[in-house]
Amino acid sequence: MDLSQHTGHVSQREKFNSTVNEVAFFIKSFLSGVTPFLAQLNILSLSTFYKAHEIDH
Asked: CA dihedral in degrees (10, 14, 15, 19; nearest 10)?
């Protein structure tokens, strides 16, 4: 068994895992930052839509 090949394989896998973890962390922090903003936008658009609808009648 070639040990250098094995360790190379492991380091590649570790690199991949750390990249996946970084991406997951980035997405999580991005979503936690964006979600309240989106919720606010949703509420705003809903309320403006409701007001515009109310004015129509």
From this structure: 150
Inter-CA distances, 25 with 17, 18, 19, 30, 36, Å:
12, 10, 10, 8, 18
The string of pLDDT tens digits covering residues 23-38 is: 999 999 999 999 988 8
Q: Kindly report whether the global pTM for this prediction surpasses the value 0.85.
A: no
- In the chain, the largest separation of any two C-alpha atoms, in whole Å, equals 80
